Amino acid sequence: MSSSSAELAEVFSSIQGEGGLIGLRQVFVRFRGCNLQCDYCDTPTDFSAEPCLAEQTPGRRDFVPVENPVALHRILSLIEGWHRGWPGVHHSVSITGGEPLVSHEILRSWLPHLRSLLPVYLETNGVMHTALELLIDHIDMIGMDIKIPSTSGCTDLWDDHRRFLRVAATKDVFVKVVVGEQTEEWEVERSAEIVGGEGREIPLILQPITRLDGTIGIAPVRVLELQEIASRYLRAVRVIPQTHKFMGQL
Ligand code: SF4
Questions:
Q1: Gap from CA of 37 to ligand 1 centroid (Å)
Q2: CATH no. for residue 181?
Q3: In which residues is substrate bound (predicted)?
């Protein structure tokens, strides 16, 4: 695969449904593949021969299949067309996945071009710090996860998250932690300590886990208790669920 083409799952325009940029309209470029296997993952991460689904009209869900790998110029011309037809609608381009940093070599050539059209927002699981170092100059905003064992099933990522945040904190960054009924207090405390170690002002978002049936998997009072713990270390701890699902957005 050349660095001017990438394995993509989909490209579309929608409202950002979670995290610090919630409610803003973005162009989503969703890369295939991931370096983790979270228990709650609802994103297909395999490299099957399926085409990329590319929306033609922003937000109208008129997807057409585009053969993978997708060339950069196809993405650029799509966004340029949306710029002309719908000027000012999109706040930024969301580079998402899967885990987009798995494709860091491709992103190194893609991001300067994408950034010439829109600010670049990276949505990441917050682990691949070496890849982030290579790309940080081409990124404007970062939403990173801290994966806690009780909800993600991932263990021993604490040091990777700490190193990742050290690089990410040179940009506009927030951290998201998915919490559920089974989440233990020490997990939230340790997450908040890591974030606070880089700056008390860095926003932390506690995201109540959404079950497969669409219901929230943590009691309201438990969320407040976890927020109180994290707030010992940080100035801005917000509780924000995934909103795109109940709004019927992608
Ligand atoms: S990091 Fe995201 S895409 Fe990867 S397995 Fe976890 S939830 Fe799925």
A1: 6
A2: 3.20.20.70
A3: 15-17, 30, 96
